Amino acid sequence: MNSQNNLKQLFSVPVIVAALGYFVDIYDLLLFSIVRISSLKSMGVSDVEMMATGEFLIRVQMAGLLVGGIIWGVMGDKRGRLSVLFGSILLYSLANIANGFAGTVTQYAVLRFIAGIGLAGELGAGITLVSETLPTKLRGYGTTLVASVGLMGAVLANYIAKTFDWQIAYFIGGGLGLLLLIARVSVFESGIFLKVKEQHVERGNFFQLFNQKERFVKFIGCILIGLPIWYVIGILITFSPEFAKAMNITGIVAGDAVMFSYIGLAAGDMSSGLLSQIIRSRRKTVFLFILLTLVFVLIYLYAPISSSTQFYVVCFLLGFGIGYWALFVTIAAEQFGTNLRSTVATTVPNFIRGTVIPLTLLFQLFRNSFDILTGALIVGVITIIIAFWALRLIDETFGRDLNFLEED
Predict the structure, then answer these.
(1) pTM of the model
(2) HEC string for the chain
């Protein structure tokens, strides 16, 4: 009976809808990486300018995520988790539909920025809602389920991009988001949040993260442990055709690299989530997966890969190594009180996505000074070292009761 009740809670409406929401979020977030070459070619971008223009557009999209992370995070604590889910989905859905009509790089950039703002709200609000509605013993399983289902959005995005023109792929992404709004109607607000709302305490004060040293250090630690994740996605996977060319490997398609890496990421998320439940430690699990990421980065850059099949297998391994994404967001949600939880759980993943901006600039600097492989290695080692250091700054949160507040 207890087992049946656990399953019923685990597959409750908030968890299922959060998982579907993240599925659409990932579809839209990664679609640019998948259709980058075909869409930019249709706008007249030359092969020589392709990488630099792609880096510019991904930086613009991530800048939108940075801005959106703060907006939606604060709103989630002030107005509720559901208001963020509705507002963010509507914004990124409309922006993606408009993106299908873009005819110039400037239009593309503006719409990716707006879409980035919208995309920033989905994961943090969903993870916060699931964390607060599930009992402590099921929390890790619930957030793992959300991430694992959501990450498969990359597979659909790749399939759609291969089947239809890039414009249609954007239209479909926007349409999926609008359909998701209908499903959101059946979701209820977090009971923990509603209790805090009745207490009239200050909620969603972003600057509260900076007025105490201990709180600020934890916030920074939560962000930086995820640095290797977006180094891998934003550089190694997004520009996989260019890396393959440097390795003399032909036939590599960015969409396939994204798809295989995200299948690996889903497998990694399931494994890290289950492992953290078994060994009863978030931090030890993250340490192991950062170590795995280092190993797979070295294999990607320097192993004697000679075929596209081997290359895609390594992309899968890279995805598995960074498969602590759900755990990373769960840790952020568990570190802070209810009156700041949405702010943190939404800003942290989007701030780490935003690190793609300095990471791509660093990569550009080092690859121009050395070569593409050495440049990527230097940036990767820097992210790994920082992530290991940051892991020391955060608390172990396994089994923590989330019904608490942050005091001034």
Answers:
(1) 0.81
(2) CHHHHHHHHHCCHHHHHHHHHHHHHHHHHHHHHHHHHHHHHHCCCCHHHHHHHHHHHHHHHHHHHHHHHHHHHHHHHHCCHHHHHHHHHHHHHHHHHHHCCCCCHHHHHHHHHHHHHHHCCHHHHHHHHHHHHCCHHHHHHHHHHHHHHHHCHHHHHHHHHHHCCHHHHHHHHHHHHHHHHHHHCCCCCCHHHHHHHHHCCCCCCHHHHCCCHHHHHHHHHHHHCCHHHHHHHHHHHCCHHHHHHHCCCCCCCHHHHHHHHHHHHHHHHHHHHHHHHHHCCHHHHHHHHHHHHHHHHHHHHHCCCCCHHHHHHHHHHHHHHCCCHHHHHHHHHHHCCHHHHHHHHHHHHHHHHHCHHHHHHHHHHHHHHCCHHHHHHHHHHHHHHHHHHHHCCCCCCCCCCCCCCCCC
